[in-house]
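Hi all, posting the design record for the shared folder.

TITLE: backbone redesign
STEP: 1 of 1
STRUCTURE INPUT:
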């Protein structure tokens, strides 16, 4: 056992809870400090999901991934800031104040795993765990200039993750290098009987930068409307680098992109409206006032405990699922989701991976985006991978206006190794 020392979080508000010391032991992650997103349960350590409703909550058990990183010898440094319950793209929807982007502190770090990204980008920790429901690992990785990987759905156990939208989300690694992503994947993957969607597919791989002959599909839609041309040009330069390393670049189409965002927002709000019903002041949340009726206390706890965006999504989801509307919204969203999946399956018969920008723009200024719809639109390039359940990584790809840009690589189900190899080849190419 060794005790790690680490710098305090006085500049970025990256942490909601920071521990006094981090104990590391022997193993693959020996001597490494790791930050854990605050929607991942840590036994005896406050886990708030950045919500007032869970302030002071001490989980009685560790999430499976927390058990795994501890077993591998990592030292837990603290719990990172995020958008409340994962609902957001900037980490501004936190009850504990926004996180600042280390690349430019007047800007957001992206979200919802913004605290994890800022903690890694600023060097406070070497690695972090994030969660990605619709881009929450890749977006902050892109905005802060680090690497973030969303594993194939089922490859990493969700046991102990506070659910936002179960069918879409995965826990995944965030780090400054692709090798560290790969190392953390070795630790995080594997079968867990406590997660009914867990798949026995351990990752044991050393990144290989040889991409000669690899076919990379580039969907036109990833460079379409709403994508900042300056970001698009930086990403095209990145794709040309992969071509110089021997890959074949093939432009393609993903027609289902027209429905992906709508399918995502109907699905995630529907799942959220059901998942968040448990926060009622009985089991979770500040204790109910016993003089009140159950209805009064339920109303009051939820009115005071949830932030605006969370309430908006509960209402949207409850509406989408309400009787008479189910076929009109939820069922349609599932049909659109199937089309997204089919588009990917079709493309992966012709290409090995798909590449494009991670985000349509660089990081916004804190407070710049106030309209929820325009915020949702910025998720357009990340949600397709969640709808389909495929692996997707964001790797730093230069800058636009001095701010980091991310290159996104997506691959077929259970081919996390392949997208990590391409990201590794890219990282090697950039640093030469
Ligand atoms: N920005 C998306 C949302 O708000 C994605 C969030 C996430 O991946 N947790 O739903």
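Okay, here is what came back for every position:
SEQUENCE:
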């Amino acid at each position: 056992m060794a005790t790690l020392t680490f710098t305090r979080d006085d500049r970025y508000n990256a942490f909601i809870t920071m521990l006094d010391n981090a104990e590391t032991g022997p193993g693959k992650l020996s001597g490494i400090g790791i930050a854990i997103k605050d929607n991942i349960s840590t036994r005896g350590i406050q886990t708030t999901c950045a919500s007032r409703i869970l302030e002071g909550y001490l989980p009685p058990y560790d999430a499976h991934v927390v058990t795994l990183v501890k077993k591998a010898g990592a030292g837990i440094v603290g719990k990172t800031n995020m958008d409340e319950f994962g609902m957001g793209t900037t980490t501004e929807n936190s009850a504990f104040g926004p996180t600042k982007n280390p690349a430019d502190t007047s800007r957001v770090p992206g979200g919802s795993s913004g605290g994890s990204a800022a903690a890694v980008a600023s060097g406070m920790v070497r690695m972090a765990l994030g969660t990605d429901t619709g881009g929450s690992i890749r977006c902050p990785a892109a905005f802060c200039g680090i690497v973030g990987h969303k594993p194939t759905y089922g490859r990493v156990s969700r046991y102990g993750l506070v659910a936002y939208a179960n069918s879409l989300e995965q826990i995944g690694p965030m780090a400054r290098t692709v090798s560290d992503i790969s190392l953390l994947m070795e630790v995080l993957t594997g079968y867990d009987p406590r997660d009914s969607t867990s798949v026995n597919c351990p990752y044991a791989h050393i990144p290989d930068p040889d991409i000669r002959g690899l076919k990379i599909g580039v969907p036109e839609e990833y460079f379409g409307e709403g994508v900042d041309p300056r970001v698009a040009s930086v990403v095209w330069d990145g794709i040309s680098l992969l071509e110089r390393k021997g890959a074949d670049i093939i432009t393609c189409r993903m027609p289902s992109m027209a429905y992906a965002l709508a399918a995502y927002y109907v699905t995630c709000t529907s799942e959220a409206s059901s998942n968040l019903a448990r926060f009622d002041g009985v089991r979770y949340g500040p204790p109910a006032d016993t003089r009140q009726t159950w209805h009064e206390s339920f109303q009051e706890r939820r009115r005071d405990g949830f932030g605006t965006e969370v309430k908006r999504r509960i209402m949207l989801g409850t509406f989408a699922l309400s009787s008479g509307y189910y076929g009109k919204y939820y069922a349609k969203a599932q049909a659109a989701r199937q089309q997204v999946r089919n588009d990917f399956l079709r493309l992966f018969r012709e290409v090995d991976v798909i590449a494009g920008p991670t985000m349509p723009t660089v990081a916004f200024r804190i407070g710049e985006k106030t309209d929820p719809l325009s915020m949702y639109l910025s998720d357009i390039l990340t949600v397709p991978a969640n709808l389909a359940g495929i692996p997707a990584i964001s790797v730093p790809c230069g800058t636009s206006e001095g701010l980091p840009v991310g290159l996104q690589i997506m691959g077929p189900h259970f081919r996390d190794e392949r997208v990590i190899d391409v990201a590794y080849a890219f990282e090697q190419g950039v640093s030469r």
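COMMENT: Residues 257-275 form the longest helix (19 residues).
Let me know if anyone wants the other runs.
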